[in-house]
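Table S2 (text version). Query chain:
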Amino acid sequence: MFQGKYAAAFVLSLALNMPYKCLGVAEKMLSLEDGTAQLRTVIENLQIDEIETLLDYLATWNTNSKHTITAQNVLFALLSSRQSRSFASNPKLRIHWEALIPYTERHFERLTKLQQQSTFLQYTWDRMKLSEL
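Corresponding structure-token output:
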């Protein structure tokens, strides 16, 4: 990983069953300029058992709001891969997909509420500036 071989480090962390090392590699990858493209390339070359492991990691990462952005970016890369069409037919993967739904919905609701509050704050600020004139 120190040599910039993030793709190999990502696959190796999956093989060695190291979820938080995999998370760190994914975060480093996504911080690169072409990180999303690299991540998609790595994910498209994964085998079904590695995808199952990755989905298990995603469910774990997604439970913590600190890791949500990385988890959702990896999930998006996984869902936008060419292999995603075959996921629905695999019963092993269905269990992992269902584990992702509750926390993803919770994070979505939290972000929606935050966006509403920031919009209200901006509106209030704009009204206060107008009243000063």
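Notes on Table S2: The chain is about 75% helix and 0% strand. Residues 91-132 form the longest helix (42 residues).
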